[in-house]
Amino acid sequence: MSDTNKTKKTTTDSASGERKKPTLLVGIDLGTSRTALAANNGFRICISTCVGKPKDAVSEKLFGKRLLFGDDALNNRMAVELIQPLGDGVIDTSPEVKEANIAAVQALLRHLLSQASNKEDEVIYGVIGMPARASVSNKRLLVEAMRGIFEAVMIVSEPFSVAYGLDILTDALVLDIGAGTMDLCRMHGSLPTEEDQETIDKAGNYVDRTLYDLIKKRYPEAQFTINMIKSIKERYGYVSDKEERIEVQFTVDGRPRMFDITKELKEACLSIVPDLTEATYKLIGSFDPEFQRRLRANVVVGGGGSQMAGLAAIIEKSLDELGGGAVRIIDEPVYAGANGALKVAIEMPELFWEHLKD
Amino acid sequence: MKVLYVVANTYSSENVATLAGKGIGHVVQAYRAARGSIKNIFRRMPFPQLFSRAPRSFEAVLRQAILTESQRSGRNLSEKEIDELVTKILTLLEKVLSGELGVDAIPWAMEMLRSKDALADFVTPLFKTAGPLSEARVEMLKQILAENVRLQKEIKEEEMAHE
User: What are the Cα distances from residue A241, in Å, to A274, A297, A319, B27, B158?
Assistant: First the structure.
């Protein structure tokens, strides 16, 4: 066993003999739509990635707090200034919103950590998943934003953390379908490089917008919002050839009416499949030909988007062109990224964390 | 599994002390015991305070807890799977007490055992990798660290350039 393997998470500092502060390890999947956090004390949570600032003194008094988080913010969006700080899986740095978005991400993570940690003097180490091909500047921005929140923080690629959490470190292709991006990563027994990963800026949010437009086009009189469309997609989304009709209730001039959206929903859900297939072909096709079959035989799909009915079958069908393969949807897609990031954090020797402290 | 009795023989007293202060809903008591491997002591040790009518070994208590969780969560693990899990937990405890592994694994693992999806997604992989990390895995962690150190270095250099 190497020296590193023997590194212990003790509570005393062997050099000084002083008692170290308790340590909390957390794994975070900071997503465009949802943020999931898992901690080594058993706590875990998943909320919408948004922050609400009460619009005025009245709403601040009404809520009794200066900021609302997650679904609480979404559900009260008429009375708050709603900030959704991530776009395409990274902090949206458009000049007019950059500072507000950074502050919102910081506040959101502080809020989550305050729930995870119940000890005042706890030292928090975090591993955060980001899109596979996030730019260096985006990674930097996040690391900088996390100063003062974590004692030390590490960034890992989101699909890699999914794979790490599931212990799939070799001969696998991981597809992580989020709201902002779809991330693909091939695992071959070593840390994936840029060539092993793909990020597509067309994911759940794109499906929502497509569905919104399709329904609007067919039923111009119907009243609905993009949030309603998102909920419908999450509940009924499918890409299979199912027979049953999908009808939802919208209002027309305030009066409820049922609308058949079966065709529109399928078309919208299918809209991301060609890009996913193309990226899958690219990662398999550019892999060592002797090992391509193994990769095809172990395609793992996670992320909220993986819940669309029939997705595994449709990806599997697309693999026929390459000689066939096997696709499975992971059991716990929403937490898989956070679980994996937590596993990285837990297995990271204490000594390694020391390198990242300011 | 409210009480976890930890037998400390020749094992690191520091780790036992840490365990004692750790529990999430567990009271951990450290006992000094005579010779024998930790696993055998677990197997022999009665739990009269907890299970007054039928003293049982730690292994039996653990097995019953897993069986209950398995049924409650709908996983319905087979006898073989439960055997494997019990062995993994005992091995894990052994490693923690010998100081080979960090103590953080214990309360977390126990908490996860109680959660609905623990056996499906979390606990099994945890115990699967509960032993010392393979050299390949340590290398992977080293590379993750190196990438992050490089990132931080760049940030610091940029900050210094601005100053």
Answer: 17, 24, 18, 54, 54
Higher pLDDT, B102 or B123: B102
Decide the pairing of beta strands A299-302 and A255-260.
unpaired
- Nearest chain A alpha carbon to B143: A191
Residue A260 CB: number of other CB atoms within 10 A? Answer: 13
Decide: helix, strand or coil at residue B122.
helix
**Is ipTM > 0.85 here?**
no
Q: Domains in chain A, start-ordered, CATH in brackets?
A: 164-202+277-329 (3.30.420.40), 204-270 (3.30.420.40)
| Interface membership of B148 toward A (CB under 8 Å) | yes
- Chain B positions in Cβ-Cβ contact with residue A335 (cut-off 8 Å): 121
Tokens 């898992």 sit on residue: A38
Residues 6+ apart with CB under 8 A from A147: A358
Could you give the angle at the alpha carbon of A267 between the alpha carbons of A266 and A273, nearest 5°? Answer: 95
Question: Is the CB of B124 inside 8 Å of chain A's CB atoms?
Answer: no
- Is A346 touching B (CB cutoff 8 A)? yes
Q: What's the predicted TM-score (pTM) here? A: 0.71
B28-70 per-position pLDDT tens digit:
333 333 233 344 444 444 333 333 333 345 666 667 767 776 6
How far apart, in whole angstroms, are the C-alpha atoms of residue B102 and residue A352? 14
CA-angle at A343, arms to A299 and A332, nearest 5°: 50
A331 and B117 in contact by Cβ < 8 A?
yes
Give the closest of A136, A143, A347 to B133, CB-based.
A347
Q: Count contacts between A and B (CB, < 8 Å).
A: 116
